[in-house]
Design brief:
This protein has helices at about 10-15, 50-65, 115-125, 145-150, 155-160, 195-200, 230-245, 260-265, 295-305, 320-340, 355-365, 405-415, 430-440, 440-455, and strands at about 45, 65-70, 90, 100-105, 110, 130, 165-175, 180, 205-215, 215, 220-230, 250-255, 280-290, 310-315, 345-350, 370-380, 385-390. The chain is of the alpha+beta class. The N and C termini lie close together (about 5 Å). The structure holds flavin-adenine dinucleotide. Flavin-adenine dinucleotide (FAD) binds near residues 70, 74 and 146. One of its GO terms (molecular function) is oxidoreductase activity.
Amino acid sequence: MALNSADSAFVERLRAILPDAAFAADPAGFLIEPRGRWTGQGVVVSPSSVEEVSAILAACFEASVPVVPYSGGTGLVGGQVVEDGPVPVVLSLARMNKVRAVYPDENVIEVDAGVILQDVQLAAAQAGRLFPLSLASEGSARIGGLLATNAGGLNVIRYGNARAQCLGVEAVLADGAIWNGMSRLRKDNTGYDLRDLLIGSEGSLGVITGASLRLMPHPAEEATAMFVVPSPAAAVWLLGLAGERLGETISAFELIHRQGLDFLEEVEIDHKRPFKDTPEWSVLMKVGLPAGQSPQEALEALFEATDGLVTDGVIAQSGQQADALWDIRESIPEANKQVGSISSHDISVPISCVPAFIEQAPAILAEIGNFRINCFGHLGDGNLHYNVFPPMGRDRAEFTDQRDAIKTAVHDLAHSFGGSVSAEHGIGRLKVKDLETYGDPAKLAMMRAIKDALDPRGIMNPGAVLRAK
Ligand SMILES: Cc1cc2nc3c(=O)[nH]c(=O)nc-3n(C[C@H](O)[C@H](O)[C@H](O)COP(=O)(O)OP(=O)(O)OC[C@H]3O[C@@H](n4cnc5c(N)ncnc54)[C@H](O)[C@@H]3O)c2cc1C
């Protein structure tokens, strides 16, 4: 069905049903994606209640005007940015930013979808609980966007991704209908799981306006260590050993290649160097134990049990030292941004295939050209951020015509291992073709049928996840 632009006549219609405050946002900040790769277009509106969201969607539905839900704008696959086609309404959740209720006895928090992740973490901590979703964009990303992309991050190995931490959502569908699914139930087998359908749908089925989230007890004792390993295979072996000894107390297990540490030096991001010589491969891991047990001792015992395979290591002796180690990991995306990748990939493969992937990919890429590769990520989830950069002193713009070949090579290799071409960032607009190429045909047909049923006029984030009709 043909879509119409949000022209001045349509904006007047919106002004008639919304307060002035809904139009106060400066549109510029909403139209650029984090790495500055795309500049979008759109009329930005910021409703302050689910009823206002409903009124906006009903108006858009009637006039066949596209809607792009927008939370923190940190998405990395262009899902929140529309460059061309009919001008959309960009629906910002920024003013829906209240913590609605905390139920410490139930380990549940209910929030508006526009609450920033860091604020949810803080509200949970104030109630003596942990909201364990954690990622480098947590100061900007909002709950609606995190759920819409089923975000992962650092603690998935222990707590699961955003989906695993959500008990219920409130959402507005394309025609303006409000679905109150703010359940606090742990068990509810009454029909299709619509919560899980909206989670990960990247704004293509409806707008998430609220969520009830699962809280956890805070581990009494936490410790962080950085271990030097000779190879990715050794890192996978260490992951297995750590699992045997520490079980589900492993909260994070990150693989870091020296390129990431070199980039921190290159772009002069201030950080404490944990080792005199920069290691080729290292693992950053965190454990959280119940009261009365020493996580430092557990990490020391793990180090000793590796029988020399781990060649060096630092175990943080204070919260400050642990923060300094995590700063390194969390600064790597910023360093990448400053260096400027030619092509970035967020792939996953079965954990035991990670070493073979890392061994084979450089040789395949070398047939295309001479590149620097920064491979890092959530080894505990088999998820690598595999980013390809120009050689030192060259600009990524010089390599634009090689980008497709690089992307295809990396994605083909991940697919050949039974992997995914989007482990945690979603499909957005950037990976629609990849989903078509690598997705199971029956899955794609089911997705299209669901989209057509819930969004018959195709107004919800057209062109994201599935190609616009
Ligand atoms: C420095 C950095 C580090 C990152 N690290 C990670 C990481 O470790 N793991 C990870 O998974 N991701 C990571 N990301 C990606 C990004 O932070 C996550 O995808 C995040 O979940 C996006 O949240 P947001 O609020 O910014 O959403 P946005 O960017 O605003 O939106 C993302 C998508 O969700 C849709 N959407 C937004 N709000 C809603 C809503 N309320 N209802 C329905 N649809 C909606 C949008 O239309 C868009 O398609 C990182 C990004 C940056 C910049």
